TrEMBL record:
Keywords: DNA-binding, Transcription, Transcription regulation. It comes from the Bacteria. PROSITE patterns: HTH_ARSR_2 (PS50987). It comes from Sphingobium nicotianae. Residues 5-100 form the HTH arsR-type domain. Transmembrane segments: none annotated. This is Winged helix-turn-helix domain-containing protein. It holds the Pfam family HTH_5. GO terms for molecular function: DNA binding; DNA-binding transcription factor activity. The lineage of its organism: Bacteria, Pseudomonadati, Pseudomonadota, Alphaproteobacteria, Sphingomonadales.
Amino acid sequence: MSERLSDTQIEAIAETMRALGHETRLRLVDTIYSEGEKSVGELEVLTGIGQPGLSQQLAILRKAELVTTRRAAKQVYYSVAAKALETVARFLAGLANLAPAEMASQIEQPASRRAHGSAAMFAKIL
């Protein structure tokens, strides 16, 4: 058994999970994580998410502090704010009974080996 989380920790985890709980935002975070820092234009091409939806979803990720930005001239580049995801990652790893090393090996899988779909999709199949 692990130590219970404080109310503040639970609120922070819930807020992060709400931000990640949208398919488009999750796709954006996955793309940035897999591909590295990308501009808005590059993200549009890589994900197929058009404007203004892309800007709206990136704004939500920025507000949740799950991505960081860097401006170069007129371009804005996005990176994953890995530090912001540490608490959620530890919490989910604890629920899955994964040690930190096991968790890292699960996260570091190449994109081609990652599972596609969701529990909801699985449930629909049944």
